[in-house]
Write a structure and sequence with these properties.
With 414 residues, the protein is mainly beta. It contains five helices and 27 strands.
């Protein structure tokens, strides 16, 4: 059944209501028919749901603040809207709870009649099944098998626990509660800590269709970024003058310093938008997103600088692989890797990460410096390697030929 929610605002700030309306417009769900009013008639099932709305919905001094919005309907039928700073956010490999609570008349409904269903919104009109529960039966779907369960913290708790969170888990989820006659649903947004990185392959700039951009980000340990992620990166200082694909099929680019070669000097700063482009025919760069690493990125320079084939062998000999672009960005942003030496990466590019800018290290701002795609056979550099969790320590090879680890040496008494 459709549900029109009447909201009584207990704050003098109209920006709260505008934020909710903006969230309803952008995220859909059961706030689609929101309007003000003193009360509303009670219904059989009502969702208590945690909603996260983008900071762009706020104006003036509220700009940039994130909100948690709790929406619930009590027994009297009054709707109370409360806001507080924060958002549902985790990182790759972490555990997160997607909050969802519901209320129903226990005298009128059998608890075993209640069906709980979680789906992920993959498109404005497309959903992917995540988890379903009815009575004592539970079922997870696809990549969520073995990683999801209900929190079940008391009656009416439909909150979903997701463990070992992946990059692909990022996005919006719908919590739907249904009995034989009524249903209600609410949206929860799952965000990830991470970093945006612009990307183009060896072929050059503006060579990727949308499907190719998706594959390119995946090959570099990332996913296509969302608009919200790109906007947040722009607010943190990302300035990039080449347009790239985003997750929703739009093409955009962030500009922090207007200049003639980047859409005219008099144009305002911000995220420039080309709109939605033809995914199969048009070609641009990609804006990729990645989150924290469970392994380690380290710089390796053998007794001399090496070509790319030698770099591959050097990393393998250290129990590692040549690092991907996304892995280097994650190590720079989230592990503060700072190294003023250029090294090979897995795609054949040469880059190096700078946290503390200094003389002769490529500029006055932090970032990952890019030297392009040199000749793999004849140009010589160091190499950035990635060692996955559980791989053997690179130092172990040094003591493998009949030598003991110096940390295990004991003094000789004579």
């Amino acid at each position: 059944m459709s549900l029109e929610i009447l909201v009584k605002i207990y704050s003098p700030s109209e920006s709260i209501l505008e934020m909710i309306r903006e969230g309803a417009y952008r995220y859909g769900g059961f706030l689609a028919n929101l309007r003000t009013g003193p009360s509303c008639q009670a219904v059989g099932i009502n969702i208590w749901i945690l909603l996260i709305f983008a900071a762009s919905a706020l104006g003036g001094s509220d700009r940039g603040r994130k909100k948690i919005v709790h929406v619930l309907e009590d027994e009297s039928g009054a709707v109370v809207v409360q806001t507080a700073p924060g958002k549902v956010v985790t990182h790759r490999g972490g555990t997160i709870v997607l909050p969802c609570r519901y209320h129903y008349d226990i005298s009128a409904h059998d608890e075993d009649e209640i069906r709980l269903k979680w789906t992920k919104v993959t498109d404005p009109l497309a959903f992917r099944d995540v988890f379903v529960a009815m009575g004592k039966e539970r079922r997870a779907f696809g990549s969520y098998r073995g990683r999801t369960s209900l929190q079940e913290d008391g009656p009416g708790d439909a909150s979903l626990i997701i463990r070992n969170v992946t990059l692909q888990d990022y996005g919006r989820y719908e919590c739907e509660v249904t009995n034989e006659l009524e249903d209600d649903a609410g949206m929860v947004s799952l965000d990830l800590e991470g970093v945006i990185f612009p990307y183009h392959p060896r072929l050059g700039r503006y060579t990727l269709t949308f499907p190719e951009a998706q594959r390119a980000c995946a090959e570099q340990d990332g996913i296509l970024a969302s608009y919200e992620q790109l906007h947040a990166a722009w607010r943190e200082g990302l300035d990039w003058c080449n347009a790239g694909w985003l997750q929703d099929g739009s093409v955009q680019y962030p500009v922090g310093q207007p200049r003639e070669e980047c859409g005219r000097r008099e144009a305002p700063v911000g995220v420039r938008n080309y709109g939605y482009r033809h995914k199969e025919d048009e070609r641009y760069d990609a804006f990729c997103f990645t989150s924290n690493l469970q392994g380690q990125v380290f710089f390796l320079k053998p007794y001399r600088k090496v070509s790319f084939p030698e770099a591959v062998r050097a990393c393998a000999g250290s129990g590692a692989a040549v690092a991907k672009v996304g892995q280097l960005y994650a190590a720079w942003k989230l592990q503060l890797l700072d190294r003023c030496e250029a090294g090979w990466l897995g795609d054949g590019s040469v880059r190096y990460p700078i946290v503390n800018p200094r003389a002769r290290c490529g500029g006055q701002r932090p970032g990952v410096r890019n030297l392009g795609f040199p000749d793999k056979k004849h140009r010589l550099f160091g190499v950035y390697c990635y060692r996955a969790p559980g791989s053997r320590d690179p130092g172990a090879a040094r003591w493998g030929w009949g030598w003991r680890d110096p940390s295990a040496w004991r003094p000789l008494h004579v």
